[in-house]
Amino acid sequence: MPATPEVEVRRSSRRRRTVSAYREQDKTVVLVPAKFTPEQEERWVQHMVRRLAKREQRRSPSEPELYQRAAELARRYLDGAVRPHSVRWVDNQRTRWGSCTPADGTIRVSRRLVGMPSWVLDYVLVHELAHLLVPGHGADFWELVQRYPRTERARGYLEGVAAAPRLHSSWGTRLDAAGTATDTTHASANGHDPPGDR
Predict the structure, then answer these.
(1) CA 159 → CA 29, 77, 82, 194, distances in Å?
(2) For the chain, does the N or the C end have fewer beta carbons within 10 angstroms?
(3) Residues annotated as region Disordered (predicted)?
């Protein structure tokens, strides 16, 4: 079971009524109004961490669901010409979104994709499924991948996610891009209590 992420609270005098939370690499960042009392901050942090975890859980299919999703994508976009032997999440891919072994039909998907939009995960699955048919990144490979209609959009999304840490370090400014890659959630702080806790 993964460790509970570190939580960093950032107070803002410009923030009046909203609370936001997102993942930034291995931590959760919660943005709160500067005028919150410590008690209000604690209640909202707990609420937003739970809310973010629930959303991520909805966006994190189990491995059997991941396999079924890949099989359906292969049927829909690759004419059913390939069926993976297995599809699983992995934690050791820090520079790649997915990988496969054509010899045994296995596909591995980076857990960094958890929480990203479903169409981004679908693109990575189609990419790896195409590699089960065609090694390398030649024209025949891209012809298969381009059958997935959101290929260019997903590639742009992933390029932005990959570039965000470099932009952060080169600009010396915190960017939300890394956080929005996994998920961002907002709530209004009317009355300064989390919904359901009033």
Answers:
(1) 22, 23, 27, 35
(2) N
(3) 1-20
CB 87 within 8 A of CB 131: no
Q: Tell me how far apart the alpha carbons of residues 177 and 167 are, in angstroms, rounded to a whole number.
A: 10
C-alpha 76/C-alpha 136 separation (Å) is 22
Place of tokens 């297995």: 86
User: Are the C-beta atoms of 24 and 35 separated by less than 8 Å?
Assistant: no
pLDDT (tens digit, 9 = 90+) per residue, 157-192?
999 888 876 654 443 333 333 333 334 455 666 656
Report for 76-80, 114-118, 175-179: range of highest mean pLDDT? 76-80
pLDDT tens digits along 118-132: 999 999 999 999 999
What are the domain boundaries of the chain? 1-59+184-198, 63-159
**Assigned CATH topology for domain 63-159:** Zincin-like (3.30.2010)
Closest by CA position to 61, among listed 88, 96, 36: 88
The answer, as to whether pTM is greater than 0.85, is no
